[in-house]
Fold each of these.
Amino acid sequence: MSNTWKIVYTRQAESDLRGVYEYIAFSLIEPDIAKKQVRRIMDMIAKLDQMPERFRLYDKEPWHGKGLRVVSVDNYLAFYLPLKAKRTVAVVRIMYGGRDIDEQLKQPPAT
């Protein structure tokens, strides 16, 4: 049996990642930096396929009790849930660390 976990992105996480790219590429007018930043975030998330529980639980409720974990990549945070029964890591949000994280986590998912 493989020790590798499957990585899945929620629609919200995909939207968040697009937002990171668009902000850096279009607002800051730095498309090359935007590509590199998104690549660094995706590369770190890809590493969650091995021992995804090695990163800390998010310390606030109700997320802590649900098992939400967080990994930082530069100034960004990727929030994810290790789903043990399915050996799957569900990436639920990706956001800039300087924002009001609790407020962002309360927002309804993007459609």
Amino acid sequence: MSHFAKIDSNNIVTEVIVTEQDFINSGVVGDSFLWVQTSYNANFRKNFATIGSTWDATRNAFIPPKPYPSWILNETTCQWEAPVAKSNTEHVWNETDQQWEAGEY
């Protein structure tokens, strides 16, 4: 069994299912959406696809939703990173002040 992400016309993941490759190939899913295999362990395509993620065919990667407007995409990992490095004692991103703050998750 494998995980597959359903991609809409805007390259947004709308569904993730567990099924056999033959099921996807057979057209049994009954729609014209693109289905792209994703790895639960992120062994390929950079990140596991989740609803709301973007499929980037050029990067061959799933990119999670951007958590804050100021965050920057790491081109290697396709993960969003804060513009300020996180220290070991700071836990919560403050978008207004653009800094990490001590606090609970």
Amino acid sequence: MAHFAQIDENNLVTQVLVVPDNAEDRGQDYLVNDLGLGGTWVQTSYTNRIRKNYAGVGFTYDATRDAFIAPKPYDSWLLDEDTCRWEAPVAYPTDGVMYTWNETNTDWEAIVNE
């Protein structure tokens, strides 16, 4: 089975559907004509073998990078051009403690269980 993401005029993903094996090689045509869904459909893969990331509703399809990109989680985060995933400007600590991102301080804060 193949997965296809419908993108709107702004290249935002509006839905992701599964196409049966017998229609996988003609996914766009199957979705638009056979099912009558219209629109533009781009194949995605949950194994990330194509288009860098599995598409989700709200993701953007970047045709230049041929990649689906998640919404930017924080203003300070940067896009890794190889993976097309957002990364914090400070590496996540590897000391075994759980952290959450603090955008005001642009740093990781330990999660304290009370």
